[in-house]
Write a structure and sequence with these properties.
277 residues, 13 helices, two-stranded antiparallel ribbon, 1% strand
């Protein structure tokens, strides 16, 4: 069955720079296949998303070669969270000062972000096509909508908190900053095509919601409180690592939702929003 590894290969290719050296692509793919999948027992046994494993590995080892841009202007990748080159993607330009959103939108409008007219990996830049692909996957029931919505929802809640704080402190436009943060980087691609991987996701309904919330929250914490402008791949790998613990916690419980679970998740989100705000 070559379909499953082919999907991992497509995802890995889509989060790599188009002008990246071939040997870097090969090493990342080999590492993701051997360490991310085969070492755990092969197809259907892997704990971590192999595409994310390969991308993070080459980002750490070959960060200076993962560049974008034309005419000698190098732009760092925002696809998978490894931003180490000292040039600015749209996200990197507002990393230290959210008030720069007006200047950034003069260079890259929200429409540019939606249609893909920005630097970045070819899989992450066009939000329109990602949404269309997501609708197809969810309509065919090839992917679980819970993890996707939980990741986007948790990230959106924490982002709204940040936007309100930025408005109070700096007068930043809340709507512009919120839409920019939702459309920029690899958030949509990760939520639609990576977090929904059934092999590396929990098996229960509530477990997948917790799984998505962890990924979205860690992405927001990395983006707003960490050193990198982006961190989708890292957040997905961290959520993958916690999947066995989530499944273990749900042993013996009904595969449904309870008010205690929803209340606990709500309290956790309030705490995280206060922290990031």
């Amino acid at each position: 069955n070559f379909t499953a590894p082919l999907i991992s290969a497509f995802i890995y290719a889509l989060i790599m720079p188009a002008n990246c050296n071939g040997y870097v692509v090969f090493i990342g793919a080999l590492f993701g296949m051997l360490v991310g999948k085969m070492i755990f027992g092969g197809l259907g046994q892997n704990i971590f998303n192999p595409a994310a494993v390969g991308r993070v590995f080459v980002g750490i080892c070959f960060g200076s070669k993962l560049i974008y841009g034309e005419g000698g202007v190098d732009v760092v990748s925002s696809a998978s969270g490894v931003d180490v080159v000292a040039s600015g993607t749209p996200l990197a330009q507002i990393k230290d000062n959210l008030a720069n959103i007006g200047e950034v939108l003069n260079n890259y409008s929200l429409l540019d972000l939606f249609l893909g007219q920005i630097p970045g990996s070819m899989g992450e830049v066009c939000s329109l096509l990602i949404i269309v692909g997501g609708i197809y996957l969810f309509a065919r029931r090839s992917a679980d909508l819970r993890s996707c919505l939980a990741m986007l929802g948790s990230f959106a809640l924490m982002t709204i908190t940040v936007c309100i704080a930025a408005y109070i402190l700096q007068g930043t436009n809340i709507l512009d900053l919120f839409l920019f943060e939702m459309l920029a980087g690899g958030l949509l691609f990760g939520a639609v095509f990576m977090i929904t991987d059934p092999v590396t996701s929990p098996t229960t309904k509530f477990g997948r919601i917790v799984f998505g919330v962890i990924a979205g929250s860690v992405t927001a914490l990395i983006r707003y409180c960490g050193a990198y402008p982006e961190g989708v791949a890292y957040s997905i790998l961290i959520a993958n690592m916690l999947t066995p613990a989530i499944d273990h916690f749900m042993i013996g419980k009904a595969n449904t939702y309870s008010w205690k679970q929803i209340l606990g998740l709500g309290i956790a989100m309030v705490i995280l929003c206060l922290i990031v705000g």
